[in-house]
Design brief:
Distance between the termini: 51 Å
Order of helices and strands: HHEEEEEHHHEHEEEEHEEEEEEEHHH
Largest sheet: 6 strands, mixed
Structural class: alpha+beta
Number of strands: 17
Radius of gyration: 36 Å
Strand content: 25-35%
Helix content: 25-40%
C-alpha cells in the first residue's frame, strides 16, 4: 500500500509540475534603458472622445536620457497616455508593447522614417505634404497625430492647419516596414546543457545581435569563481564580440549544478521604431531619433539540463521504488529461468510468500473466534468457575 501511495503521489499533477519545473526561460533584458526628460518639441492637438467631449492636448517629441550616455527622441504610442518626466523606460520589441498584434505597427515605423526629425528638411517635407510652411513644432505635432491615429484609431486632429495637412499626408501615404532589431541583444537569452566528459561541456551557442561595431563580454563574478568561461566555438576566451558572434559557456567537469550569466555592452544608435515601456502601457514611447547610446544585454546558462522521467513510468518519490506502467516491463531487469517457469504457469516467485501469509491469517482468525466463544460460556456458569 505504501508503494502504491508513493507512486500515486509522484504521478499527481502537483508533484509532476514541481519536478518538471525549472528556471523560467524568459527573455533576457536587451538594449537601452533611459529616463524621460519630458515633452520638448510640440504643438497642440484636438482630441474627440467617444463620449462626445473635446479637449486640447499637447502633441510632439519627447526626449530621453539613456543610462550610460546618449539621448533619444520619442513620440507617444497611445493618445490616452501622459508619460511622466523622470519615469524609467526600457527598450522592448513590439510583442512586449502596446503595438503587439497591431496591424498598423509597420505603418507607424514608415511614418517615423519619413517625417520629422528623421527628415530635417522642413521645406521639402511641407512641399511633399502640401502643407505650406512647417516649423519644428508643427512638424512634430503633425507626426504625433498621425501616429496616434494609426496606433489607437483615435479621432484626433492637429490644431495647426499645416500640421493637420502633414498628419493627413503621412497617414495616407504610409507603407509598411518590418520591426527593427534591438540595439543590442543576445539570442537566446537562456541556454541549458549537461556537464559531461573529462573536461566539462560547452553550453550554447548564444548569438550576439547588434549594430555596434564591437561589444564587451563580461561573465558574472560567480561564474568566474566556479571556473566558468565564456568562449568561442574553438574554446578561446572572449572579451569582445561583434554582430553574429557566437558565445559558449565552458563549464568545468564536476562543477555542481548551477547557473552562470554573461553581460555584453556597447554603444550604438537605437533603431527608429523601437519601443520603450515603463510598465504602464499607456506611457509607451517609440523612437524617432537617437544619438550614440549605451546598450547592454544578458544571457544565462543552466546546467545540468533538467532530466525528464523515463518513458513508461509513473515517476518516483524519495525512498519509493519506481513502478513500471503495465504492459511495459523494464528491459534492465532480467528474469531467471525459475521466474520464467512460474510466469508460464500463471504463478510467480511471490506465490509461496502470499500462501504463507494467507495461512497465518486463517490461523489467527480461528484463535480469535475460539476466545470470543469461550468468554460467554464462562459468564453463564459462575458457580463452576468458583469451584
Amino acid at each position: 500500500m505504501a508503494l502504491l501511495a508513493a507512486a500515486a503521489l509522484s504521478a499527481a499533477p502537483g508533484a509532476r509540475a514541481s519536478a518538471d519545473s525549472g528556471p523560467a526561460a524568459g527573455r533576457a533584458s536587451e538594449g537601452a534603458s533611459a529616463v524621460l526628460d519630458g515633452l520638448k518639441t510640440y504643438g497642440q492637438a484636438v482630441l474627440r472622445s467617444g463620449d462626445g467631449s473635446v479637449r486640447e492636448i499637447p502633441a510632439g517629441l519627447h526626449e530621453m536620457r539613456v543610462d550610460g550616455g546618449g539621448m533619444l527622441q520619442t513620440y507617444g504610442v497611445g493618445v490616452a497616455g501622459y508619460a511622466q518626466p523622470q519615469a524609467r523606460f526600457t527598450e522592448t520589441g513590439w510583442g512586449g508593447s502596446p503595438l503587439a498584434g497591431n496591424a498598423e505597427a509597420g505603418r507607424i515605423r514608415w511614418v517615423l522614417e519619413h517625417s520629422y526629425p528623421q527628415l530635417n528638411d522642413l521645406a521639402g517635407l511641407a512641399k511633399a505634404a502640401g502643407a505650406g510652411a512647417l516649423t519644428a513644432e508643427s512638424a512634430a505635432a503633425g507626426t504625433q497625430v498621425a501616429i496616434w491615429r494609426l496606433a489607437d484609431g483615435a479621432q484626433v486632429e492637429a490644431a495647426d492647419p499645416a500640421a493637420e495637412q502633414l498628419a493627413d499626408y503621412l497617414q495616407r501615404e504610409a507603407g509598411r516596414l518590418p520591426e527593427p532589431p534591438a540595439s543590442l541583444g543576445l539570442d537566446p537569452g537562456r541556454v541549458t546543457g549537461p556537464v559531461a566528459g573529462p573536461v566539462g561541456s560547452r553550453i550554447g551557442p548564444v548569438t550576439v545581435r547588434t549594430r555596434a561595431q564591437s561589444v564587451t563580454v563580461t561573465p558574472d563574478a560567480a561564474a568566474a569563481a566556479m571556473g566558468v568561461r565564456v568562449v568561442d566555438a574553438e574554446g578561446k576566451t572572449l572579451d569582445t564580440a561583434a554582430d553574429g558572434s557566437r558565445l559558449y559557456f565552458e563549464v568545468p567537469a564536476g562543477t555542481p549544478d548551477g547557473t552562470a550569466s554573461v553581460i555584453v555592452q556597447g554603444s550604438t544608435k537605437v533603431p527608429v521604431g523601437r519601443v520603450f515601456t515603463s510598465g504602464i502601457p499607456a506611457e509607451a514611447q517609440i523612437v524617432a531619433g537617437s544619438s550614440e547610446s549605451a546598450a547592454s544585454a544578458g544571457a544565462t546558462a543552466v546546467w545540468p539540463e533538467p532530466a525528464q522521467p523515463p518513458t513508461g513510468t509513473v515517476g518516483t518519490l524519495a525512498g519509493a521504488t519506481e513502478l513500471a506502467v503495465a504492459g511495459e516491463p523494464d528491459p534492465a531487469i532480467s528474469e531467471s529461468p525459475e521466474e520464467e517457469r512460474l510466469a508460464s504457469s500463471g504463478s510467480s516467485a511471490a506465490t509461496p510468500v502470499i500462501a504463507s501469509l494467507a495461512v497465518g491469517l486463517v490461523v489467527l482468525g480461528g484463535l480469535v473466534v475460539l476466545l470470543l466463544r469461550k468468554r460467554p460460556y464462562e459468564d453463564e456458569h459462575p458457580e463452576e468457575n468458583e469451584a
